Amino acid sequence: MTASDPPPLDLLVIDDHAIVRQGVMMLVQPLHWIGRCRDAEDLAEALRLMETAPADIAIVDLSLRGHSGLDAITALLDRWPDLRIVVLSMHADPVHCQRALQRGALGFVAKDDASDELAQALRRAAARERYLSTSVRALPLGASSAESDRLPQGIDAAAAQLTAREKQVLAMIGRGWSAAEIAQELGRSVKTVEAHRNNLREKLGLKNNRQLLQFSAKWAQFG
C-alpha cells in the first residue's frame, strides 16, 4: 500500500456466474487497499452478507437470477446509502448505463473492456468519484432514453439558475470525468473545479456528492 492509496475497503462481488465472481476476485487480489472480499450469487445472498458485515464497495452485474441488477442497486442503496457501487456488465448500452447511474451507481465497466479498467473504477469509487470504462464513454449517453426527449420535471427549472460553465462542469461530472480531467479540459485548477462542484450542490439544493452524481447523470442524459 502506498501513501496515495485509500484505507482498506471491504468488497462484495454480486454476479450469478461463479466463474465471473472468481475471476473478479482474482483481479482485485493485487489491490492491497482492498480488504475482505466476499461474493454473492443473487440479491438475497448479498443482503444477508451485508446484514452480517456491510461492505464498502459492491461490484454488481445487471443480470441476476430473480432480480434486475438495477433493482439490486436500489435495494442496496436504500439500506446502505454509503455503499459505493460499480456495475460490471455485458449490457454496455446507453439505456442500461444511464439507468444504473441514475439509481446511484458510481461506475460502469463493460465486461469486454480491459481488466485494469475495473481496478480504476474501484479506485474512483473508493474516492466517491464516477468512472465509466472506455467503451461506455463512447456511448451516446445524451440520447440514451426512449422515455422522454426533455429533462424530467423539476430538473430543467433547477438547472436554469446555473451559469454556462457550471452546466458544462455538471455534464462532465455526469459523463464520468474526474476533477483532474475536467480541470485539464477547461484549463483550470482542480481547486477551481472543486469550487464549481460546491457551488453546484448549493445552487441545486443537493446534500452530498452522491446526490450531485445522480443529478448530473440525468443532466448529461437530457441536457
Please give the oligomerization state of what you see: single chain
Task: Label the structural class.
Answer: alpha/beta
Strand content bin? 5-15%
Instruction: Estimate the global geometry from the Cα principal axes.
Output: globular
Total strands: the figure is 8
Protein architecture, described:
Helix 3 packs parallel to helix 4, helix 4 (94-103) packs antiparallel against helix 11 (209-222) and helix 8 packs across helix 11 (209-222). The protein has helices spanning 18-28, 43-52, 69-79, 94-103, 115-126, 134-137, 155-159, 164-174, 179-186, 190-204, 209-222; strands at residues 9-14, 34-40, 57-60, 63-64, 67-68, 84-89, 107-110, 131-132. The chain folds into 2 domains: 9-141, Rossmann fold; 148-222, Winged helix-like DNA-binding domain superfamily/Winged helix DNA-binding domain (Arc Repressor Mutant, subunit A). By secondary structure, it is of the alpha/beta class. It is built from 11 helices and 8 strands. The longest helix has 15 residues, at 190-204. The protein starts with 8 loop residues before the first strand and ends with a helix.
